[in-house]
Design brief:
binds calcium ion, alpha/beta, 11 helices, 8-stranded mixed beta barrel, EAL domain-containing protein, binds ligand C2E, 279 residues
Length: 279
């Protein structure tokens, strides 16, 4: 073996090695994050465009890492998935979301829905429905108050199993949404088979809609199609009054974006809602 040289590392680039090291470090930090409660949820309002009232909220995961600062989920969700941490972190997100719903109800927002993002691993987790049943029972809440957001890309493989998982959640009364609509490869024919309530048009189309004819056409025709199917349509990433006005004119049901509010810590948002209510 001597001479053959045990340094197989040279077959890989230094870049690959660094990436691997970084991922391992991130993974071990994320394990600690869960144990040490470094995650929090921020909430972003969803606004009914016809009457400008609060329709619901979306829970968005945040990681306050002591070493790294505030880390966006785009930087760590994929690593959670690879490290098989998405299911435990997902359970934590769901439990927190139920707590938030209890607070919303107590604050007088009886109809506001709360959207929870689910990853593919969670949707395929056979223990998820029982876990949800337990929480509904414990908090005496209606499943219809929650909307579970699934991304279009999750629907790509094993569509029949995916539809079965969706039906298990739907049969309990949970609302289901397709997130990032327009960015994946899901066929429109599946839309008919899936028990979904809501379609969320990806923000990339909203960003471009007033400068780019193709984005505009995609937005307006998606709104029309979704409404025709009897589903609710949400535009995410609404940042300007002009976008909001055009979306409202084209009968988009709901808007979500920085124009209305950035995602903010759940306690702060609930305090603000209570203050508005007592104005
Ligand atoms: P998403 O579900 O598509 O969430 C929307 C993202 O757009 C959020 O990013 C939100 O902060 C951002 N956003 C909202 N309005 C605007 C706007 O007007 N302009 C711009 N530029 N951005 C806007 P965030 O919070 O960084 O989350 C990124 C993604 O991470 C989410 O995309 C979702 O896929 C994932 N994620 C977040 N929380 C969870 C979670 O609890 N579980 C799972 N599985 N995924 C999550
Ligand atoms: Ca979402
Ligand atoms: Ca989205
Ligand atoms: Ca997204």
């Amino acid at each position: 073996a001597k001479g053959k040289g045990g340094n197989s590392l040279h077959f890989y680039s230094q870049q690959m090695f660094d990436d691997f090291q970084n991922r391992l470090a991130l993974e071990s930090d994320l394990k600690l994050a869960l144990a040490q409660q470094q995650f929090t949820l921020h909430l972003q309002p969803k606004i009914n465009l016809a009457n400008r009232k609060l329709q619901g909220l979306e829970a968005l995961l945040r990681w306050h890492s002591p070493a790294r600062g505030m880390v966006s989920p785009d930087e760590f969700i994929a690593v959670l998935e690879l490290a098989h941490l998405m299911i435990p972190v997902g359970y934590w997100v769901i439990e927190q979301s139920f707590r938030i719903m209890v607070q919303l109800q107590a604050a007088g927002f009886k109809d506001a829905t709360l959207a929870i993002n689910l990853s593919a691993a969670q949707l395929n987790d056979t223990k998820l429905p029982t876990f949800l049943d337990g929480l509904l029972q414990q908090h005496q809440l209606s499943a219809a108050l929650f909307e579970l957001e699934l991304t279009e890309s999750m629907l790509a493989n094993n569509i029949n199993e995916t539809i079965k998982s969706m039906q298990r959640l739907k049969s309990r009364g949970f609302r289901l949404a397709i997130d990032d609509f327009g960015t994946g490869y899901s066929s429109l024919s599946y839309l008919r088979q899936m028990p979904v309530d809501t379609i969320k048009i990806d923000k990339s189309f909203v960003f471009g809609m007033l400068d780019n004819q193709a984005d505009f056409d995609i937005i307006t025709s998606t709104i029309a199609m979704v409404r025709k199917l009897g589903l609710e349509v949400v535009a995410e990433g609404v940042e300007t009054q002009a976008q909001c006005k055009t979306l409202t004119q084209h009968q988009c049901d709901i808007g979500q974006g920085y124009l209305f509010s950035r995602p903010i810590p759940s306690d702060t948002l609930i305090e603000q809602l209570q203050a508005n209510l007592h104005d």
